[in-house]
């Protein structure tokens, strides 16, 4: 089995973005950006405010239609797919601020991601047909297993709103993982967390990459998180890719240093 850092040559990239450009209300948010995320690797996207990180993320998730360029997931063209279609293509995401139903339990929140693999129609569920019941049981078992994997199974039956912010980020992660993604997009996972929570989550993401062989693209301002987990970092400045390499290489790249100093 190949090491996560050394993906097998015959696998297609988990994500391949080619010459992606995006115009937003007259603003050139992205200009001919190329990104490759190999299977089971973690790629960080950095850049000062307004660099285009969220825009790129939103193009991959289907929230913004690319003005030009191509986005492929394992070789399948997903350019201009809509957000609700993305789980079918193996793409799952988390949000900077977890979007949960605080009054529903942790398990119920996770299960809202589980409908993806369910083949029985709503009528089968309404009639409690055996196949639908079996599928429901399997999905609940898978959700509980993921909560165990993310070390919050003991909170499964609590209202999600009662969890710490870090706990809520784990609930979102479990929900994303329940869809069985090939590519996980993490939007500022570290924001709002304590240093300890950030480092704990960094370990979790590294484990997910190895255990589930999922590729990860993360938009992140927290350089500690970036340095701790990424195989590769891409820096954007004013919608243009200015640097690519290891976290250490990108952090000392003159264009990146200048952009951050200019933004300070
Ligand atoms: N809906 C929009 N309409 C017009 N311009 C937009 C819109 N969203 C973003 N922009 C512009 O696109 C450019 C890229 O913004 P984007 O939010 O992608 O940057 P970012 O790197 O994610 O910044 P931050 O770190 O502050 O979130 C900026 O110039 C921004 O002002």
TrEMBL record:
Cross-referenced SMART domains: AAA
Keywords, comma-separated and alphabetical: ATP-binding, Nucleotide-binding, Transport
SUPFAM superfamilies: P-loop containing nucleoside triphosphate hydrolases
Coiled-coil boundaries: none
Residue ranges of domain ABC transporter in the record: 15-263
Gene3D superfamilies: P-loop containing nucleotide triphosphate hydrolases (3.40.50.300)
Keyword Iron: no
Methyltransferase listed as a keyword: no
Classification via PROSITE patterns: ABC_TRANSPORTER_2
A single MF term (Gene Ontology): ATP binding
PANTHER family assigned to the protein according to its UniProt record, in alphabetical order: ABC TRANSPORTER ATP-BINDING PROTEIN, CONSERVED COMPONENT OF ABC TRANSPORTER FOR NATURAL AMINO ACIDS-RELATED
Name of this chain's protein: ABC transporter ATP-binding protein
Taxonomic source organism: Nonomuraea antimicrobica
